[in-house]
Structures are given as structure tokens and as C-alpha cells.
Amino acid sequence: MTPQLHELQAGNEILMRKVAKGRFLLETSEPHKNHLLVSPVTGVAPYVSYIRSLVNDEREDGFPSGNRFFLLNGASRSWEFGYHEELANMASTAHWLTYVPTISRASEDVTWNGERGRVDDLLRKYVDKWALTGQDTLTYLCGHPEMIANGKAILRRDGWQKDAIKEEIYFRPALVHA
Prior knowledge:
- By secondary structure, the protein is of the alpha/beta class.
- It has one domain (29-161): Rossmann fold (3-Layer(aba) Sandwich), CATH 3.40.50.
- Helices cover 31% and strands 20% of the residues.
- Strands 4-3-2-1-5-6 form a six-stranded parallel sheet, with helices on both faces.
- Helix 5 (145-157) links the parallel strand 5 (137-143) and strand 6 (165-169).
- It is globular and about 45 Å long.
């Protein structure tokens, strides 16, 4: 739906549901105690919702014990991260949250001191670094369809089963007719 929203002009009308509809939900049940959240730019939105809820749950002693969350969020340039400051602050206080922002156009953002590269290109590096496996980790891929396809292929080549990977594609690419 992202392309359709982008096309809207001031004054256009849209119909909104009263209740959100979707199945890209956080699952904290066994056997997955680790949760790998991967997204480019705006794909981070559902993860922000998950993490905010978990922070509140932790304050009320309702946090799902033993769960760990790893967020790998990419953008072209650092100023495109919509929730960077909030996520960095939450990760600095929540022992269960690791947050890695990365930019893919470092030559256009020379003051950035963080990770560099596309999220799907860095996926294997961080899965290894964090010692995550498809047996104990549920991966959530949200955003651009090519990132999701690349991410799934990387994980599947490493032995991850289909049930250890969830996806939310932000839009379907247009079919090209030859």
C-alpha cells in the first residue's frame, strides 16, 4: 500500500478500518526465545509497536521471560531513520533489546559512525554474531519485497525452516509484461 499512499495529495480521502487487520504479530511462545527483527526504513513501524508494548509489559512485570530481541534496521542515510533516537534509548535500558541501525549510502552521510550496508547484506553477519538459529529464533522480515526475498533466501540456505520466518511485504512489485 506504500505506493498508493505516496500518490495521495492534500485533500484526498481514504477509507480506514476501525481495527487494524493483519497477521504480522509478535509471537513469544516456545521454542523461539530469540526474535530477529529486520527492516529497511519504514518497515520498522511494527517493531516499534512490539518494543513499546514490551517495555510497558516489563514495567508491569508482564514481560515474556527469557525472550531476547535483535533489531537490524536500515536506511539509505541516517536522517531517514524515523525512530532512531527512541529505539537507541530503549535499547540502552532494555537488557533484552539489541538495536543495530545501518545505512547503505555511506558516501552521502560521511558523519555516520555506525554500521554500513543494506540490512539483507548484513543479515548473515549478525545472525552469526548473535549466535541465532532457526531452532530458537523467529525472524520477522518487514518492508521492501526484494529485501524480504533476499533475507528469506539467506536464512533458508542456512537451514532455517519456513515456520521460523515471518514476513510482511509492504507492496507487491508491478508485473512486467514483455
